[in-house]
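Thread: quick sanity check before group meeting

JM: Hey all, I'm pulling together slides for Thursday and realized we never actually wrote out the predicted structure for the chain we discussed last week. Dropping the sequence here so it's in one place. If anyone has concerns about the input, flag it before I start.
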Amino acid sequence: MDRNTTDQSFTESEFNAESVTNAEDTGPEQTDGFHLVIDALKLNGIDTIYGVPGIPITDLGRMAQAEGMRVISFRHEQNAGNAAAIAGFLTKKPGICLTVSAPGFLNGLTALANATTNCFPMILISGSSEREIVDLQQGDYEEMDQLAIAKPLCKAAFRVLHAADIGIGVARAIRAACSGRPGGVYLDLPAKLFSQVIDAETGAKSLVKVIDPAPAQLPAPAAVKRALDVLKGAKRPLLVLGKGAAYAQADEEVRALVERSGIPYVPMSMAKGLLPDTHEQSAGAARSMVLKDADVVVLVGARLNWLLSHGKGKTWGEPGSKKFIQIDIEPKEMDSNVEIVAPLVGDIGSCVSALLEGMGDDWKAPPAEWTDGIKARKDANLSKMSAKLLKNSTPMDFHGALGALRTIIKERPDAILVNEGANTLDLARSVIDMYQPRKRLDVGTWGVMGIGMGFAIAAAVETGKPVLAVEGDSAFGFSGMEVETICRYNLPVCIVIFNNNGIYRGTDTDPTGRDPGTTVFVKDSRYDKMMEAFGGIGVNATTPDELARAVNEAMDSGKPTLINAVIDPNAGTESGNIGSLNPQSTVKKKK
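JM (edit): ok, ran it. Output follows.
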């Protein structure tokens, strides 16, 4: 078809060229762009695609499925992108998101940018309009210069124009996504590329198997010695474990560092479970105390961004009261907020192993005054919380409901917890203990809502483990239609929605009396009916006991389940623990 035609009644088949291999041809066997993309991915061990079908990539999804790949079709590209991103985090291979051009690409771009910010390896592959029409702005179908738009928001962006270059394009995308600090990569595939035909043997030779896409980066010996010298002089040392440490899958090395050094540690939310939260050296329950009072802080795959108050302010005590050692694969991360007196540049596994080797047999544990003080504070804080978690009120408050879920995760440590919301996120992070690495998946660095269903689907697909998604009612709204996807693929996902009728709480009002308050949803919504509409199991739970029973039944059955957990509309607080980021007006308007 001539895509410059004035006929507007396009059909999808006109945009999605079929593979043109003809059984009656007597010439050499041929292949096309469709098959080369699929073969390039499979050659590099990528067997799953997340996406939304449509012009011009529908046939690519069909053919990938026919070639044995798993293709998970979503209802919205952002959710497919989030699934690909967290697949990258869980597997250390780039997750693949496949979208249509222009609007579909833009929907996936949010997830791509979020993956880059969170250091998740992901490749967004989008079909696009032809260059010769886009560059002259002639009004092609979904015309957009996607490569230019993507470049500022990801690690790298590539466009492939010739079938013979597909292998190298995919290889470059994989290496860019995985090497150094992982992140998102955009791969632009114009529609015309898919139907390009070349000799099959030539095509096979053009494919590239990426060798060692994320090579170890060893720290300099002098840097290791410097870090150990600083640590030896500490009276109140502290380890902060970040999600970079979880991603590295250097679990045994990290555990050995913690236990051999005797240093207490605080895990960031997605690093929870690297060691069990119940470990005697865990200082999570005394977080405020240890951040403020520590004199030497070792950052292991954690960044001093807003989640750690930028390493400044009252959270960290008096200015200049502590020294920072930082382990990160990205040199530019050092000194980004405060002075790092001992930067250790390299991959987590290599850096931690080097520290262990350099500690020697005469390493001394931190003073008992420091560790005993932490234990006392932990015990006091946990004691205060325990009574709240046993509250069996109707309607439930957040602590009572989370207390029930806390017990379930303790009994099912292999389950994956996905968590997002405001109060639902802030409180679950501190209430629910994790026992194994990479079992807690949440909003990450940006704190962006809407990751829930994408993360839950990918976690179930990539691991085969049961998934418990604990959602605020607001957060669920961003990706809730994907419950149909969960039912369609019959995934072992149990969704619990903390329904308090609104954002933070469901009690705001419009002072004019005209509309509902801006943070208020439909009162007493029954989200469980959504799941039932698609053939899943829906449950309405009004007490912690009902909630626990419903979740256990769902986890035992492995069937798609959504539990509407009725929470007191008055129970929430503004922005949870990050209320200071929500500016308050100081102007009083005259009446």
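AS: nice. Residues 1-11, 17-23 have pLDDT under 50 and may be disordered. The chain has three domains: 12-206, 221-374, 390-574.
JM: adding both to the slides.
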